[in-house]
Write a structure and sequence with these properties.
By secondary structure, the protein is α+β, with helices and mostly antiparallel strands. It has 2 helices and 14 strands, in the order ααββββββββββββββ.
């Protein structure tokens, strides 16, 4: 009798184990085939952080270029007065440390930053292509810790987006992002930003308009990898004073799952339309 009882207990245990394993596999398979609105919002928050860092680095490069070359018209920096800037020239390299402090410093687009960005570039501004490098030191963007480094290639050229000579910057990204809740994301990728309006009014950053294209691979906290590709160039208008594109489309791919994110028709807002499995939904972007 005991032998029969042990047989049924063992059989029940095996059945339970197989059932649990099957459910876990199904859940994992379903997750691998799904892209959610939360995924898109998290990515937009990372975009806001990475883009602001790029704008700050470019801003300080342009300020130094104008100061050194003594071109006509003063450059109006995008940085708020709460930022402390230290500039050191060593041999042929400028190093600029932008310290936003520990209490929080608000950028013109409403984002709050803390910590330091350390930027370096050559004092030779006459070469056709220049490289701007930066590192982050205790840097927080809207409560997210951003770690890593980046290089920006700065050049004037004609492109398919705009035939006239204009500023084109290529951004190499390799960062880790820790959200306030402890979740960790990582991103690698390349973005190209073309200034299509505002280049002739160097003293006024508010009329600058950029078209942005490129891609990134972002690893989410659960290990899933998402590829975000800009399929219609993103239009960023600094006059909006908001950290979101106003136009453009991103295609999102995770394994066999696919979605699109459309930023709209040019209005200055935080809205976008995400399409998943043919179903459209309007969402508020995160920053």
């Amino acid at each position: 009798m005991k032998a029969k009882f042990l047989f049924f207990v063992t059989l029940f245990s095996i059945t339970l184990f197989i059932g649990c394993s099957t459910n876990e596999s199904t859940d994992a398979d379903d997750d691998a085939k799904t892209i959610t609105t939360d995924d898109a919002i998290a990515n937009s928050e990372i975009d806001a952080s990475v883009d602001d860092i790029s704008i700050i680095a470019e801003d300080q490069y342009s300020v130094q270029l104008n100061t050194t070359s003594k071109t006509s018209g003063a450059v109006k920096s995008i940085l708020p007065l709460c930022a402390t800037i230290t500039t050191v020239l060593t041999n042929d390299t400028y190093t600029k440390t932008i310290d936003f402090g520990t209490d929080g410093c608000t950028l013109p687009n409403g984002n709050i930053v803390k910590g330091k960005i350390i930027i370096s570039f050559s004092k030779n501004f006459l070469t056709p292509s220049r490289t701007i490098s930066y590192t982050l030191e205790g840097f927080y963007h809207n409560g997210k810790l951003i770690e890593g480094n980046k290089t920006i290639t700065h050049e004037l050229k004609s492109t398919t987006l705009l035939a006239a000579l204009h500023l084109v910057t290529t951004h190499s990204v390799d960062v880790k992002i820790t959200f306030p809740d402890g979740k960790v994301y990582s991103r690698i990728g390349t973005r190209v930003r073309e200034m299509v309006e505002g280049f002739d009014t160097i003293g006024n950053w508010e009329d600058n308009v950029f078209l942005v294209w490129g891609y990134n691979v972002t690893t989410f906290p659960n290990g899933a990898k998402y590829t975000f590709t800009i399929t219609t160039p993103l239009r960023i208008a600094l006059s909006c004073k908001m950290p979101f594109p106003v136009k453009g489309v991103i295609t999102i791919v995770k394994n066999d799952a696919k979605a699109t994110l459309d930023y709209g028709n040019g209005d200055c807002d935080d809205l976008a339309t995400i399409t998943i499995n043919g179903v459209e939904k309007e969402i508020h972007l995160g920053k």
